[in-house]
Write a structure and sequence with these properties.
alpha+beta
């Protein structure tokens, strides 16, 4: 995901698990093949556009889930994953490993390409 911000690759040390309190509190479950995790804040205009793009991609690609997490409500998870701006998007593989991360509003084509690394 080239997006308009910082992009990082695979981070084998950082994993989201359903036993993480903030992750479970967000009602999130991993997708069968991959998960698009979006960290947002209430007054973030690019977050709304990002929600639309990720929702469209999740609807197009079987086994992919889109989860949006309110960064302000889940500060423990934000700190643990070093989220510094919204929107930040994490692309997770089926086991919850972070394959890609990008800050800023992503383009649909970039999200689809990043999913190629996760599935």
């Amino acid at each position: 995901m080239d997006g308009r911000g910082r992009v990082r690759g695979r981070d084998d040390e950082a994993r989201l698990r359903t036993d993480v309190g903030a992750w479970a509190a967000a009602g999130a479950e991993l997708g069968e093949r991959a998960t698009l995790v979006q960290f947002s804040s209430a007054f973030c205009a690019p977050c709304r556009a990002t929600r639309r793009v990720l929702g469209e991609v999740a609807g197009l690609v079987p086994g992919v889930a889109h989860v949006e997490i309110d960064a302000e409500a889940h500060l423990d998870l934000v700190r643990r994953l070093e989220i510094v701006s919204t929107p930040t998007v994490l692309v997770l593989d089926a086991s919850g490993g972070i394959v890609r991360r990008a800050a800023g509003q992503p383009r649909k084509a970039d999200v689809i390409a990043a999913l190629g690394e996760a599935v």
